[in-house]
Every structure is written in structure tokens, then in C-alpha cells.
Amino acid sequence: MTKEEFQVYYKKNKVLVIGVPIILGILLLDMLVLRPARQRAKQPGQPAASPVNVVDAANAAGASSIPAVDPLAPPPPLSVPGIPPLSSAVEKRFLAAESYPYPPTKNIFLPEIKAEAPVAIVPEVAQEMVYERPNLTFNGFFVMGPDRVAIVKMNDRLMLARAGQRLQNTPFMLKAIHPDRIEIVDTQDQGREFEVAISENSSVAITAKAN
Q1: Which top CATH class is 136-208?
Q2: Is the pTM of this model over 0.70?
Q3: Which of helix, strand or coil describes residue 129?
Q4: What are the sequence ranges of the domains in the chain?
Q5: Does 205 score more than 60 pLDDT?
Q6: What is the pLDDT of residue 144?
């Protein structure tokens, strides 16, 4: 192999060219130097015992010192130590108090039921119903065709209304128109009817009419 071929081979296989000589050198060093030195160190004294042999020897010595135990033999009786009795001073600390904080018969998980005072039942007094009265006056009427038109003054305001017509901004309806009075009905309560007499001086004259 020429020098040029070796250089080309070295460039392509640099790891192989360097690693193989190093590995061979390590193997030769162990075989020629290190191994003969280890053998010479073992020859003068007793050969070193392996860890496995040491463990086996210890187990054998321990087994020979322990007597054989029958696996079917009953276990030895238990030794119960004697417990001295408590003194009276210490025993009093464990006694439950009868009235602290509650007696033993009290259920503390339920709300306390207090004794209620007697409730006096007062009979209800029927109160007299107060009805709202229409504040109006009847100031006459006039005829327009077949109908009568009443002239009513309510809250200082004159209004004209036919029979069967509801008074403006009130729950009252004009039921009938007579020469001397008018009849009005509360639309919110059909049982309430009123009669308003004619008045010349604009004074209120209202009387309740029984059904």
C-alpha cells in the first residue's frame, strides 16, 4: 500500500485506524501486566472467599445454633400484665357530670321547646264597611230626542250624561234619570246603588237605595 492509498484509507476510516490500535494495546496490557500482578498478590495468603460462600457459611452457622421448632406445636400462652386499679381521685375525673352543661336526658340536637303563654282569643268585631260616596250634585236635565241628558256637577266640573252612561273618571254609572233625582250604580260592586236628589244650591243630597 502506497503512501497516497494509506492517506485516502485513513481519511475514510479515521475511527477504525485510531481505535483498533488502542483496543489492542489495552488488551495486551491487561494480559501481560495486570493479570499476572493480580495472580501474584493472591498466592502468598489465603484465597479470598467469594460473597456467595460467605453468606452460605453464615446461614449454615445460624441454622446449627437455632433448635428445631415443631410447626404444629401450640403457641405459648399469652402473658397478661397486671393493671393496677385507678385511684379514687383519678376515677372521679372520668365520671360524667349529671347537670353540666345539660342533663343526660336532654337531646341537644333538637331546638329547645319553650313553654308558650296562653293565647287569649279575642272575638273579632265586625267593622262597618265604609263605602266611597260620589261627590256630585244633580242640577236638572234636558231632553235630546228620545233621551234625557242629566246635568251633573262633580268636583266643581259640569258633566252631561245619558242614562246607562258611565261618569267620566269614576266607577259609577248613571242608571236612571227622574225629574227630581237620578240613580247611580257602582260598577265595581253591583249591589251598591245611590240616589242623588236634585239640588238648586249645589249641595250634595245622596241617599242609599235598598235593593
Answers
A1: mainly beta
A2: no
A3: coil
A4: 3-42, 136-208
A5: no
A6: 86
